[in-house]
Amino acid sequence: MKSDKIILLAAALILLVSSNCNHCQSIGTIFTSVKAEELYGSVISAVEISKDSLLEILNKTNDYVMLNIVEEKAVFLDQSRNVISGHKISIKESDVFYKCSKSKIIELIDLVNSLNLSIEIRADSLTISNNNYTLEELFPCPPYCE
After folding, report:
1. Per the CB 3.0–4.6 Å rule, which of 8, 87, 94, 98 could disulfide with 138?
2. What is the model's pTM?
3. Helix, strand, coil distribution of the chain in percent, nearest 5
4. What domains, with CATH codes, occur in the chain?
């Protein structure tokens, strides 16, 4: 009887902690490039970024990064929507960027030792690819900024 209460209390605490942990959610799914094209369509436009530049940008943020292609450049924002990619660009709150877990980008980089990655615009999404894999299912911000 006492052990049942302890188990119930532990389960309730785990549920409470996990429901209040917005920063714990992993954003992004890695697909093979073939599967990504099948699911999300062809790349409309793309901008390349070196792996080293991308890792340097990721070091400027904590759990998440936001990105988009602006004026034919890959632009990255931190969680507070500050530009962290070195570009002198003014960003409005209404400008849509795509939120992704920093850990997912690192996972993509670790899958294939490629010197460059592509930030890609597809019909309804933005993706990050190396030659063999594509990171997809990023959250548009706005509206999904939290």
Report:
1. 98
2. 0.81
3. 30, 30, 35
4. 25-141 (3.10.150)
3-state secondary structure of 48: strand
Q: Smallest Cα–Cα separation from 97: which of 112, 119, 113?
A: 119
What per-residue confidence (pLDDT) applies to 11?
35
Q: Which residues pair with 8 in a beta bridge?
A: none
Chain position carrying tokens 């890959």:
74
Encoding tokens for residue 132?
């063999």
Q: In angstroms, rounded to a whole number, what is the distance separating the alpha carbons of residues 66 and 126?
A: 11
* Per-chain mean pLDDT for the chain: 85
User: Quick one: how far is CA 43 from the chain centroid?
Assistant: 18
3-state secondary structure 57-118: HHCCCCCEEEEEEECCEEEEECCCCCECCCCCCCCCCCCCEEEEEHHHHHHHHHHCCCCEEE
Q: Which two tokens stand for residue 27?
A: 């954003």
- Which phi and psi (to 5°) does residue 89 adopt? -130, 135
**Rg, C-alpha atoms of the chain:** 18
Q: Which amino acid makes up residue 100? A: C
Contact 127, 120 (CB under 8 A): yes
